[in-house]
Structure to design on (143 residues):
């Protein structure tokens, strides 16, 4: 007998989207770069998922009206990513977690036996990163 996989919509922190870095770890990084004055080309996509279009319409914004950072932030925060060929792919998270819930706490990260490095953000918020963690180590903490 084959295994069945139940696919449910992922939870999002809010139905609407505000580009202020509060919705996920990657959204925060993109927002920080935007606030620092960096620039990033807008995406040229053939179609936008209905989830994103609906979410943005709640705040009277169209995807094409967003700058490159905000476009990428709303994609990620809504559970999508770009492929190397600029296609949008949906990301399926374990247990229907939101994209904001994927980041590990410091305790969860250290339990993987990886070494955490302090990377203080421009606003003074502490964040941690690594560059030596293997996929096998990190998999033990994956959500």
């Amino acid at each position: 007998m084959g295994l069945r996989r139940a696919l449910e919509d992922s939870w999002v922190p809010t139905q609407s989207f505000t580009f202020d870095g509060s919705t996920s770890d990657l959204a925060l990084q993109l927002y920080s770069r935007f606030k620092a004055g960096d620039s990033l080309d807008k995406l040229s996509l053939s179609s936008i998922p209905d989830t994103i279009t609906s979410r943005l319409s709640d705040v009277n914004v169209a995807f094409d009206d967003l700058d490159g950072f905000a476009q990428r932030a709303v994609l990620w925060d809504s559970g999508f990513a770009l492929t190397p060929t600029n296609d949008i792919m949906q990301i399926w998270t374990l247990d229907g977690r939101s994209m904001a819930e994927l980041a590990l706490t410091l305790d969860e990260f250290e339990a993987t036996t990886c070494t955490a490095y302090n990377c203080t953000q421009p606003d003074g918020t502490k964040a941690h990163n690594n560059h030596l963690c293997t996929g096998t180590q990190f998999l033990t903490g994956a959500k």
User: Anything to note?
Assistant: Residues 1-15 have pLDDT under 50 and may be disordered.
